[in-house]
Amino acid sequence: MNRSRWYAIRTAPGYQRMAAVDERLPESRRMESIIERNCRKDGFDIFMPSFYKELKHHRTNEIIQKRFPFLVGYAFVNLPRLNFEELRSVDGVVCFLRGANYGPLEFPDATIESLYFAEHERRQAFLYEQHCRRENWRQERVHHLRGQLRKILPKGRKARVSMVDQAEMVIDSLSPQIKERVQKIISELNGLTSDVEVENLRQAV
Prior knowledge:
Elements: E1 6-11, H1 34-41, E2 45-47, E3 50-56, E4 63-69, E5 74-78, H2 84-88, E6 93-96, E7 106-107, H3 109-152, H4 163-170, H5 176-193, H6 195-201
Helix pairs in contact: 3-5
């Protein structure tokens, strides 16, 4: 079995940005960079230490997830067969990081493992922050929708009757326009407070 032999490559400008979405690829490769895709397409094992951020789209205000490199301009490639020339021909590879002897600088497995660990820790922190943001949004949205129902429905709700239960009891007595609005609020509330939805929001690994 060939042992791991990791070398750092210099990447061309722009090749560390996320590649276009390709639905044919497995989920684990959906957010890969251009240089990663090019190397993997040609059979090379590449590692680009990275971190994730959630950004707001400047036009749609949609929250989108982006991936960025830890080391701008560099990535690591495993070359157990020392096939340097083949790797040099991959689009986006500029050169190798060289050592004191002017040859490509080899990195020990311990260095690569420490980078993997740092990336994993950063990923876990991102997932936790993402979970907290989504959970806060969910709670604020539930509070808002219940407030909307409180303004629409008749006064005098019993303490043990939930706002949704009260709405379902009186909905047939409402005008068609108000009834439609109440049905939409109930539907969204049910989605936000269902066990499945809440469990999904709590999947911060």
